[in-house]
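$ ./design --mode recover --in tokens.txt
reading tokens...
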């Protein structure tokens, strides 16, 4: 089994991006996290986890959905890295 990098797009409720980003950093300890403006003041939070292939990405998606003020979560990309 190899390692997988999964990038999630997290959509926070309007104006709550900083709060959601901070909670994700503190509780889930992702490999990387950034905020990106996509259009008309709408921002998404890009969160990357590197994990074992056997773990699957579902558990990360569920934990991201549990973060307060999170509106939606989607897998943006997933790739085998080793």
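writing sequence...
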């Amino acid at each position: 089994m190899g390692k997988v990098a999964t990038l999630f797009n997290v959509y926070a409720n309007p104006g709550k991006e900083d709060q959601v980003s901070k909670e994700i950093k503190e509780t889930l300890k992702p490999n990387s996290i950034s905020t990106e403006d996509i259009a008309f003041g709408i921002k998404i939070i890009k969160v990357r986890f590197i994990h074992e292939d056997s773990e699957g990405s579902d558990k990360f998606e569920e934990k991201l959905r549990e973060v307060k003020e999170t509106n939606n979560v989607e897998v943006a990309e997933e790739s085998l890295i080793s």
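exit 0
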